[in-house]
Design a protein that fits this description.
The structure is a homodimer. Chain A is α+β, with helices and mostly antiparallel strands. The first copy, chain A, is built from 8 helices and 25 strands. The longest helix of chain A has 21 residues, at about 1-20.
């Protein structure tokens, strides 16, 4: 009932917006509709492509070592909560390996009673589940620490994407391998050239972790770990090990190069935090957002994405006056834990400058902080785990720009 | 807790299957993992593609008039409930028109107080929603009426797909246009060369119907109606009018060529049913299914898809003995109304012949019928709305084939 009242309330505001936008020459439009060309269109195809009018793409920085690089999802062009596989962000440490799934195996060994070598076909026979989860690079929004921030949602927040993943619970494979009671950590290792590897506590591994082979209804894409990826819901992206080929059970963490030389958080006092697994609650307005332009005064829905590695998003508040007042946005249901949640708020733009932002609260009660709170707590040495509130400024001409925080 | 018990129960059965499949030479596998090539892989890209090892594609029949044709989703290769946009089924009446979204408009006229012409940009400013819905051609499984049936899930059930659609509730647009109280029907017309058009009761139009512009996180694909498609949840696919450019409100239905010359159901007595909107409850096993082969004895998950135009799927039962006994399958949660629901059942194949099938029950209490019940009720004159139970036969060599019903 609340949603219905909101829509009806909005409708009143729409009248002006639509009259202004549409021109309203309906007789001409009807005549046009009757005289449109009647050429037969294209025939069915075996694998479709998007319209040539759609130009949205992943962006990446120039680099002398592009294999150790990343590309970003164009969140400003996103709808709903699913990220198209072709636009899912990338972060590689040694490029995308070319893997023949018929030759790929997963080795499970170490402190297990029955070491296993599983083919991809073996894994696909096992009991499976499908779950919607985000994956976010812990370096996402790292540029926001400086306070200058990125000019659009892609460059500020585009190292995060969300998919329906299908695979086998890791708990099942570990149970089958007979993991020993004194095993406390796993190594998960990829088959890329650098053998990217991370240590994972067994408690998480037997919780919601999946050995996934499919993403949004098809095989996982090469750049997302084809043919097997570990999905560790809500944890740093790099722990969701791609091209997964080995799991080693042990008593202690492995302190791999990938969790000592990087992915630690250097504090102001010179000490570094290690194993900061969870991605905290975060949100960003995707429309209207940096680089976009509002066509004119009137009704303009504000929408964006929120997510938390600690569970469900419980609330997203939106401000249009630079943080003086905040209003709860509508959350698209159902809200999956550790997945993108789409939020929306009706807004009528009066043509004057406005400062927009959103802040998320998750089911643990954690509230997304302003940048200054993060800087005070952690200093400026590390770029990881920046989940600060992001502001966009609407200029009087309707263009939207970044705001220094 | 039930799911957990089931997995644990399965695990016992897995022991044999995995030992048989994996060979278990873990020392060799560990040595292989240490000596794999270490070449740098591919660099990030702006729009990704699937692995060249993935060959799944839409299929279509040869035709002298391919613009009035269809292509089918490879459901046997599906995972979860989302259909990749590139593999969403097609059914066109005059091919896929090439439309510039900057020039495309939606005209709303007829029995309305304020006729409207909306641009795509206008529509994207309005309050939006995202919902997961299936779309199914009413001719899907038409070949099953004969009793011979198709040899694989793609050719038997592949005119059905499921997406997260984003758009504006049609109720909002109709309210804005001031639809008159005595308007009872709408015409929804596409901008394709044949101006495919259907009549829709206002009651449904102001219910859950959407004017959608996005599908699975990106703009709707050209073959799915770019830039605007009417989504009429649970109703015949053709009513989900693609390339939507005109809505006309009236007192009576329009009896267009598309709802008189086709999409009526000719009964045995020569009378035809018209406006048979709802797609009834239906299901199909996607793995193991026709054309696939089970690699060997042992654990083999049975999985498939169920859906109903009348709401949520409440139950899917699976038989492995040709219908003598039926067991409730596990349903992937959450179950969205009028969307695909993924079902799964643990099964251990003993190497002998088996006859597999599934039957769905929806929240209205309706149970998917055997083919003979449909034939007795409706005769053999019409190919539309076939939702019969589909059987697959597992041969002793593990190959899976169609069963004549």
């Amino acid at each position: 009932m609340e949603a219905r009242r909101r829509f009806l309330g909005v409708t009143t505001a729409l009248a002006g917006a639509l009259a202004g936008c549409s021109g309203g020459n309906t007789q001409q439009a009807a005549a046009d509709a009757d005289t449109e060309p009647s050429l037969l269109g294209k025939v069915p195809s075996d694998y479709g492509n998007r319209s040539p009018h759609e130009k949205s793409k992943r962006t990446y920085a120039d680099s002398k070592t592009p294999q150790a690089g990343s590309s970003r999802t164009p969140l400003q062009d996103s709808y709903g909560i699913i990220t198209p596989n072709s636009l899912h962000f990338e972060r590689h440490h040694a490029g995308v390996p070319e893997i023949d799934p018929a030759k790929h195996t997963l080795l499970v060994h170490g402190m297990v009673d029955r070491p296993l070598v599983l083919s991809v076909a073996d894994i696909k026979r096992l009991p499976s589940v499908s779950k919607v989860y985000f994956v976010e690079c812990s370096g996402n929004s790292g540029g926001e620490w400086s306070g200058k921030g990125a000019p659009d949602a892609q460059r500020s927040h585009g190292l995060a994407s969300c998919s329906e993943w299908t695979g086998v619970p890791l708990s099942l494979i570990l149970s089958e391998a007979g993991i020993r009671k004194d095993a406390r950590w796993l190594l998960a290792e990829g088959a890329d050239a650098c053998k990217m590897a991370r240590s994972i506590p067994v408690e998480k591994a037997v919780g919601d972790t999946l050995v996934a082979y499919a993403q949004n209804g098809e095989a996982i894409r090469p750049e997302q770990g084809y043919p097997l990826r570990l999905i560790v819901p809500g944890w740093e992206g790099n722990i969701n090990v791609k091209w997964l080929h080995r799991i080693h059970a042990a008593e202690e963490p492995f302190y791999t190069k990938d969790e000592t030389s990087k992915y630690t958080d250097l504090m102001a006092d010179g000490k570094a935090r290690i194993f900061t697994f969870d991605m905290d609650a975060k949100s960003v307005i995707t429309a209207p957002s940096g680089g976009q332009k509002i066509a004119g005064k009137g009704f303009q829905e504000i929408t964006g994405l929120a997510w938390s590695g600690r569970g469900r998003i419980e609330k997203v508040e939106v401000t249009t006056d630079g943080g003086k007042t905040w209003t709860a946005a509508q959350l698209q249901e159902p809200r999956f834990p550790r997945a993108f949640t789409r939020f929306r708020m009706p807004w009528t733009w009066d043509g004057s400058e406005a400062s927009l932002a959103c802040r998320a609260t998750d089911e643990s009660g954690y509230v997304q902080p302003p940048r200054q709170v993060l800087v005070e707590a952690r200093g400026l040495n590390s770029n990881y785990h920046c989940n600060a509130i992001k502001f966009w400024k609407v200029q009087a001409d309707g263009s939207v720009t970044n705001v220094e925080a």
